[in-house]
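Anyone? Bumping this.
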Amino acid sequence: MSSIDYSERIPNNVDLSSDKRLQRALEKWQPAFIDWWNDMGPAGGWQERDVFLRTAVSVDKGGWAQFGFVKMPEYRWGIFLEAPEAGRLVGFGDNAASPVWQEVPGEYRNTLQRIVVTQADTEPASVEQQRWLAQTGPSQYDIRNLFQVNVEEGRHLWAMVYLLHGYFGRDGRDEADALLERRSGDPDKPRILDAFNQPCPDWLTFFCFTTFTDRDGKYQLAALAESGFDPLARTCRFMLTEEAHHLFVGETGVRRIIERACTLMKQDPNGDARAQGGIDLPTIQRWVNYWFSYSVDLFGGEISSNAADFFAAGLKGRYKEMSKYTEHTALGQTHAIPLLRDGRLVVEDVPLRNAMNEVLREEYRDDCQKVLERWNKAVRDQGVTDFEFSLPSTRFHRRQGVYATHAFDPNGNAIPLAEFEAHRAEWLPSDADRAYVASLMKPVHEPGKMANWIAAPPRGIDGRPLDFEYVR
Amino acid sequence: MASAVRHQPVASFQSHPERYRHWKLAIDGAIARLGMDIKEENGLRPEDYELKQNSYDLGVDIELADAIERLRFEHPEVRVLVFESLLPKVFCAGANIRMLASSTHGFKVNFCRYTNETRLSLEDASQHSGLRSLCAANGTAAGGGYELALAADRIYLVDDGNAAVSLPEVPLLGVLPGTGGLTRLVDKRKVRRDLADLFCTKAEGFRARDALRYGLIDGSFPRSRWEAGVSAAAADLAAQSPTRASQGVPLSPVNSQVDGRTRRYRSVELTLDAEARVATLTVRAPEALAPASASALRDEGAESWAIRVFREIDDALLHLRFNHDTVGLVLLRTEGDPDAVLAHDAVVHDNPGDWFATEIRLLRARVLRRLDNTAKSMFAIVDRGSCFVGSLFELALAADRSYMLSDDEAGPTLHPTRAASGGTYPMGTAISRLQARFAREPQRAKDLLESEHPMHAEEALSSGLVTLAPDAIDWDDEIRIAIEERISLSPDALTGMEQNLRFVGNEGCDTKIFGRLSAWQNWIFQRPNAVGEEGALTLYGHPTRPRFDFRRT
């Protein structure tokens, strides 16, 4: 092992070569990570192929996106923190205006560790969820994007493991090991969060997942990028640059399915996209409902003492805390949340700090709403005028939080459970829907070709043409 | 800020499986399963708190105590009780924090005392009735959730990479795991004290692997083998326990009527003089003939005086504790034919091999321990017409002082019996009240039981069985003055004094829970660091973080 130059093997800007302790820890973890990647990363012979991927070799403008062919197991998973901000102060909560922490404060050690572990657990989870997708990839372009997302989730895992190894001692190392032991969807060793135990059997799911669930990741990272624990903040800031690409893959993926559906509707005498082998718009809406609702669960309880503690301690802020807000104590303020009282929704004022999960969720919801508006524009641009996507209420189909105990329709109205069940197949993917979408998942691996149910993207990757051989 | 603290009268301490809101009891042969499915909206004060994540309040614990009691009496065929959660991913989050934060000091203390007694009754069932218990934590057991597990004979935790056992009270709430947690960790499970220190300061606790290594649990199974593993462990435990009987005896409800200042049961009366801060607990001898045999006793069942009267005393004690906090002194009185008491006692005491008689003795012992643990002064008043004999003589021994009328031949007698006072009803210290009383002269306790006979005041006084024996001329004044003097003293000092004087002898797990853990907890419950405006308990769940006064003595 010692013959490997880890500071070369692991591109980094944390001066890894001079930190023997950290280096030793990562050296021990790295083989386990590679084993995990080989076991749980993309399946079906893709690991031996050369894939046109971007690799981050530094945080500079030109450094974070270097494109080239690489076999995935040889991908250089790097550790990058955004450059330190001189004299940075804790921006919010009870510790506001004191210098940010460069080491973990003992008082917040357990809390911080939990935050990091929970975030870290999602990174390998999504790789596991997506491991079979390349087998049914609709194009080389999409397969390459899938792998890009996968290796970057792997890098995000590295980033989090760096924090665990570098700052949380023995416990942190144990937690880093446990990250490679849990398995998405495994009843015995499930991933921590529910959405990350859901199967991802088809590409519509993949694109919805990257649109909605990865977008939760963006908001969580953004909130942590405000953290008073500086290494966490700097790590998350850099991760956000990569997360943007995942959201792009998701949003444009769904849009291309929509565009193709519209084209097929126009071709079909009855305007039926399914009859032409496409995925019809109402089916897409059901996938949206499903993944949006699973993703809003990830923000945690609407009224949360943990959220209040995280904010009070200066560990987790609001979205764009420092640029968007002028008041950073969040004390003496409330946030209005509709709560179920005797079967009816009554708006109640909750102390703002306790409502921080909800505040972040609302930012996320508004962002998702903009995505849907762009999809609706795509529908209109295709000349289809009788369909519009709508984002369900954050109360719809919840399994966590204050709305989990009651049934709500997509508009957020409280309804009897029987009514919800009566509409289930209309609002959420049915077995028949899943079987139909699964039936379309036939691999198209020839460069430049697209599966029938998805439109081609407007352009290729890094200036390459669409018929470029992205995987060879 | 914290919601206002509320006084909370408790209407009833009775329950029945048909009325359980939070538990599901399922019995299959020798194994009973008690599934925890705590209804968020069904707390005793739903306007103040929601019982999220299987967190509990007094209402939940009353049902739990009822279930344990019923298994002992109604289902002697059951040899193992399995605790499990019907919620996914969470076993039990312990006592509801909002409930604690919005309760009066007195309620918190009584709540903890009651929940401790419930858990001790679970251990009592295992030790004396062969009703073993197994906690199947199919999700995280935090705080009181893990403390419930600690009271069981075996603890299993699902190994799913997430579920943990934890005692987060110190780091999260600034209080103690006060339902026996600290005590059982080191005294019962004998977890090494430095590891216990690590565990009790780590809010998220330990998952299965570490929990097993440190001895916090007895085993774990992955989810896919959970049901099978727990069932096998339960069957294994059942195989180690003897069968008691196949046919149980139903526990009829304990009924009482409130009539002005008096709560009336069939053989017990609790009369309150709220202005004087004095209550009188009067226990009446049976009127019916005693059952002639153990089987006749079973036929009479829970309505038989021997068990009913102690269940009534138990209920009255709970009302005293929870609903009458201004009462400082309880006068313990008895009324009726001493021979009737002895006759009814005989069938309970003379059938050591009969399971029902045994359960009655165990129940009586628990009730008497509840009396010992009641934070009120107690004077036994041995007046004309009283019947402090046999099991009822234990009431006099439990009292802080006893006054006996010294009168002619018609005067009252005391009659200690070997069957009742020779160790049948041990205190929490595991010795009898008589042994505790004569710690200085152990032989005297033996001699008294050797020559058991009714004693008039003079002999009782010279034998050391009563504190004072005024004659008829002084009686009324002596009693009046004693009462007035007692209730003029500081109630806090009295509680502390009585708890120190009552429990003569060595400490055990039971006495450490009440005398050390609860006492420190009650101190912490009064301290600004927990319950002040900026205290950790006050601010838990609120937007502001606690601020501590860091001075230690």
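Late reply, but here is one note on the structure posted above: Chain A touches chain B at residues 94, 110-111, 114, 178, 181-182, 187-190, 192, 305, 308-309, 311-313, 330-331, 351-354, 405 (CB under 8 Å).
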